[in-house]
Write a structure and sequence with these properties.
Elements: E1 3-14, E2 17-28, E3 32-36, H1 43-51, E4 58-63, E5 66-67, E6 78-81, H2 93-98, H3 111-121, H4 137-149, E7 155-159, H5 167-184, E8 187-192, H6 195-201, E9 204-209, E10 212-218, H7 219-224, H8 229-234, E11 239-241, E12 244-246, E13 251-254, E14 264-276, E15 280-287, E16 292-298, E17 313-319, E18 324-325
Parallel strand pairs: 3-8, 3-9, 6-7, 7-8
Antiparallel strand pairs: 1-2, 1-4, 4-5, 9-10, 11-12, 12-18, 13-17, 14-15, 14-17, 15-16
């Protein structure tokens, strides 16, 4: 992998508290890379160190092969997009976008072309003279993106940039951002606490917990083969059985036990709850040992209210090849 960012043993302390603790990561050129984790896990602090707003207590950061120690934010080949846009309400869209150009050695006559290019990238052409309060939430987010992209950074840093949008618009912007990143071919480093958002958009994900990276791999690998109990739980509903994890969509309910031999395993259960969600139906069941498991099935056939009803005795089946062993709480990244 042609590396764009190298994070080498980085620690950031605030007093005695290590917000980021010995993190080592390599992010590839042109990669959409997400830092995922709960509030306080260190992901935003790590992003701010890449931007130059914070400095490591230990370790080193390299961007495009250049050591960033002592390099101020305005001299780094990066730009940062915030969650709350940080637009100037008294400036037009065009002037908001051009604001950062004054700090670069750009010939003034080149500015209109650069602004038009950035606006076209984010589908804002024709809105040059509007003020932020005349725009929708999605349009304001696009202005913030254009303001970052007009500087042509090698790395775009995004700190929960979709957090202020409603769910429908947020999903639309996820698709747009990923499409934009593919067209530009530049490196995106995206911070989010939303698991679905990270899985939807990312080439690779680093799951953070307590200032450390629990696992950093391709999105599908993170979801299908979590390395630790924390990753398994944080990436969505999971069923943990004798030290292994099985995703709810990999399990099925059946009126009989799995046959002996082969790859299928089964447990006797009682159905405790059933929730119809339109596309899916979710069951909560209890084993003889009192463990609760979750089963998710896509509704590919008409919904049958009598099937697997609450209180029924059933069996949960799963393919043992879909069970992922959990071998430790942190993989040492």
């Amino acid at each position: 992998m042609d590396s764009c960012i190298e994070i080498r043993g980085v620690t950031k302390r605030f007093g005695d508290f290590a917000a980021v603790d010995r993190v080592t990561l390599t992010i590839g050129r042109g990669e959409f890379f997400s830092l995922l984790g709960p509030s306080g896990c260190g992901k935003t602090t790590l992003l701010r160190m890449l931007a130059g707003f914070e400095h490591p207590s230990e370790g080193s950061l390299l961007i495009d092969g250049r050591e960033m120690a002592g390099v101020p934010p305005y001299d780094r080949p990066v730009n940062l997009v915030f969650q709350h846009y940080a637009l100037f309400p008294h400036l037009t869209v065009a002037r908001n976008i051009s604001f950062g150009l004054r700090y670069q050695k750009i010939i003034r006559r080149e500015e209109p072309a650069r602004i038009a290019e950035a606006m076209e990238l984010v589908r804002l052409s024709g809105l040059e003279n509007r003020k932020p309060d005349q725009l929708s939430g999605g349009q304001r987010q696009r202005v913030a993106l254009a303001r970052a992209l007009v500087l042509r950074p090698k790395v775009l840093l995004l700190d929960e940039p979709l957090g202020a949008l409603d769910q429908k618009l947020r999903k639309e912007m996820q698709v747009e951002l990923k499409s934009l990143q593919r067209r530009l071919g530049i490196t995106f480093v995206f911070v989010t606490h939303d698991q679905e958002e990270a899985l939807t958009m990312s080439d690779r994900i680093a799951v953070m917990n307590g200032g450390r990276v629990e696992q950093a791999e391709a999105s599908a690998t993170i979801f299908e083969r979590p390395a630790t109990r924390f990753v398994a739980a944080f990436l969505g509903a999971t069923n943990i059985i004798e030290g292994a994890v099985v995703r709810p969509e990999k399990m099925v309910l059946n009126v009989s036990a799995a046959p002996d031999g082969g790859d299928w395993r089964s447990l006797a259960v009682v159905v405790e709850e059933r929730v119809y969600q339109g596309i899916n139906t979710i069951w909560t069941v209890r084993t003889d040992d009192g463990e609760r498991l979750t089963i998710c099935r896509q509704n590919t056939t008409p919904f049958d209210p009598a099937a697997s009803a609450v209180g029924e005795k059933q069996f949960v089946w799963w393919d043992r090849r879909h069970a992922v062993p959990l071998t430790g709480e942190n993989n040492g990244h």
